[in-house]
Hints:
Helix content is 48%, strand content 7%.
Amino acid sequence: MFDLAQYIHKFTILRRDPAKGWPASTRGKSPYKPLLLLAALDQFDQGQLTHNLIELTADLGNLFELYCATVLLPGMGCNIAMPFFHMQGEGFWQLVPLPGKEANVASGWRLITESQLLNNVAGARLDDELFTLLAVKENRDVLRAALIDAHFVEATQPLLWERVATNQAAFLYSSELLEQARKKLKELRPSLEDDGFAREVRDQGFRRAVVVAYNHRCACCGLRIVTPGGHTAVEAAHIIPWSESRNDQPTNGMALCRLCHWSFDEGLMSVATDYRVILSPQLAAHGNMPGLLSMLDARPIFLPLETTLHPDPANLDWRNKKIFRKVQRFQQFLNSFSFSVNDSPSDIFSVFAVNWMLELCLLMRPRSIARPSQVGFWRDHSSPLHGLSRACQSLGCVIDSIYRE
Ligand SMILES: [Zn+2]
């Protein structure tokens, strides 16, 4: 007979550091052990712990960090290695040494940094009895409630339950996104309302789906850095912004490091439909020094292994037309156009040309358009083509009024 009551008791009497400085929300003691157990319970819920070994993965670290952010003040430390090591003292959590590292683990040497743990232990093993109990959802709910009630004040408890619900919903959402992309389904289920909870679920779920698809690697520069604590150098970027597309599918996203993400958002970098990096001429303008970014031009991006998760070229095409900054290319085009018109004046051609330019301009967004004052062509009053010159001035006014920032 398994004894759930003894584990409820053990979960409520976790030994926690009472040093000064812990906030009132954690009853004035270190919250790390209960938060680590809450993160591990989430992994059980997500079906990630199918055998009795809790590994120090980025996923576990990320969940732990989300719980820390819920109860701790910004700037307070969040080192998962400390509770992972010290939980041994609770009697139901044993560190499993890596082959050849048994002596280090048995020596009592304190393994309290992520790298010390990763170099010496494969993970933590629970009592077999506890592991069996945790396979049942009702038992997990009871133990989770024991942790939250015993170690956090009443005002904080709803925040933790909300975090539990968000983590579960975000995991389901990310799994569903990946599943839909693999099956090439177009429509998302419409159940996520546009409230704060849904937004957080969507953000967390989309981020997880994209980061998993790209295995934490920046699509544009290839950078991949993941700390054992779950910090990854990449973020999930929408290709067509969610506000425009309502599309969180991985084929509308890419994992990008912070610099590439910023450049992407600013329209300074993008990806062509043949999956090559394209850089805006603005990147190197006005004394900018883009450094390593300038070496990425025309290089193939790093794609997910699964082809069904590759960016949808139609989404990339939309972004390149609407957000990518091509000012200088547009200016070059205008300059060359001006030259050819002066060489072969024709009223018919001028009308055609102005109309065509207007069409072209209407396809472009404000940030990708050259402001009329920057284009000398429109100020060329000495041109023999007075009609065209006037028409172009009019066109400049039209564009100016359409695209005024
Ligand atoms: Zn990058």
